[in-house]
Write a structure and sequence with these properties.
Elements lengths: L2 H23 L5 H22 L10 H28 L2 H8 L2 H13 L5 H17 L8 H8 L1 H26 L4 H16 L3 H4 L9 H24 L2 H8 L2 H12 L5 H20 L1
Helix pairs in contact: 1-11, 1-12, 1-13, 2-9, 2-11, 3-4, 3-8, 3-9, 4-8, 4-13, 4-14, 5-8, 5-12, 6-14, 7-8, 8-11, 9-11, 12-14, 13-14
């Protein structure tokens, strides 16, 4: 197995557990508050990796362009995280995950438009299969068009789709950062953590910080560990593979979240949503190999 694919598969497992942890522990926290505390802790829990890294934190020749590029991707990431966390808070994780993880459906058109890639017939078929996954995720054994109406009217579904589109830009951006600009994960992750925390700082006080946040600091630290090291592993994958290959594998995290959500949280319609997750992964795999 290509080591880049192995990194992507491991990150899918880590991100899948992280999605479940978000739903299990933090639904009582407003999104900006959760992101502020978690991402403030990201550089702290990631410090051991930065300390032993051989590469310089910032390249001597183009520090301004590197920081600007990282902060641009960080800003887009913050939008995606806000929409995803909001969708998970107000919807069932096994419903939101299959929809939010059709990121590669958006990645491929971006690469076609920005990098001049072409869609093969298999990739077009993959887009259709992944789109069907959204339909199946909304299926509740009712009328044929009911899932489409539900997805159109459902706030969690709308937010999940917006999150998927946003993270498509993030994945393409990460690929450019890791390959074209040759940025190391030990540079990107601390800057991302601080950047997202700074972006959330003006909004968090408006929602109010629950009094339990100090008691929950160990849980926030666990969430920060997942964020830091999941991103580290996926960035290693982006160093070696294009976004259209890494993104489908990483978004296999939907299956992990669906299974955990159904088994541990006893969420309904497990079979339909597991089928939706499977279709989403099949579709995006067709996109990646096409």
């Amino acid at each position: 197995m290509n080591v880049g694919i192995a990194y992507a598969a491991l990150s899918a497992l880590l991100f899948g557990v992280y999605l479940f942890v978000m739903k299990r522990w933090f639904t009582g926290y407003p999104s900006p508050v959760f992101l502020l505390i978690t991402y403030l802790l990201v550089p702290v829990v990631y410090l051991p990796v930065v300390a032993v890294a051989d590469a310089p934190f910032l390249p001597a020749g183009n520090r301004v362009s590197v920081l600007t590029s990282i902060l641009a991707v960080t800003g887009i990431t913050a939008i995606g995280l806000l929409t995803l966390f909001r969708a998970i808070r107000i919807g069932e994780v096994s419903y939101v995950s299959p929809i939010s993880k059709i990121v590669p459906v958006f990645v491929l058109p971006l690469e076609v438009g920005l990098l001049g890639q072409h869609l093969s017939p298999l990739q077009i078929a993959g887009v259709l299969v992944a789109t069907v996954a959204v339909y199946v995720a909304n299926w509740q054994g009712t009328a044929l068009l009911a899932p489409l109406r539900r997805a159109w009217q459902s706030r969690p579904a709308q937010l999940a789709l917006l999150s998927a589109a946003t993270f498509a830009f993030v994945d393409v951006g990460k690929r450019v950062l890791m390959q074209e600009l040759a940025i190391e994960p030990t540079t990107y992750i601390p800057v991302m953590g601080v950047g997202i925390a700074v972006l959330m700082a003006p909004f968090a006080p408006r929602y109010g910080v629950p009094a339990t946040w100090r008691a929950d600091l160990p849980k926030f630290a666990v969430a920060a560990v997942f964020v830091a090291y999941s991103n580290h592993v996926v960035l290693l994958a982006f160093q070696q593979l294009p976004a259209s290959i890494v993104s489908p594998i990483v978004n296999g995290q939907a299956i992990i979240a669906v299974i955990l959500g159904a088994i541990v949280l006893d969420e309904a319609h497990f079979r339909a949503r597991l089928a939706a997750a499977g279709l989403a992964i099949l579709g995006i795999a067709m996109i990646s190999v096409g």
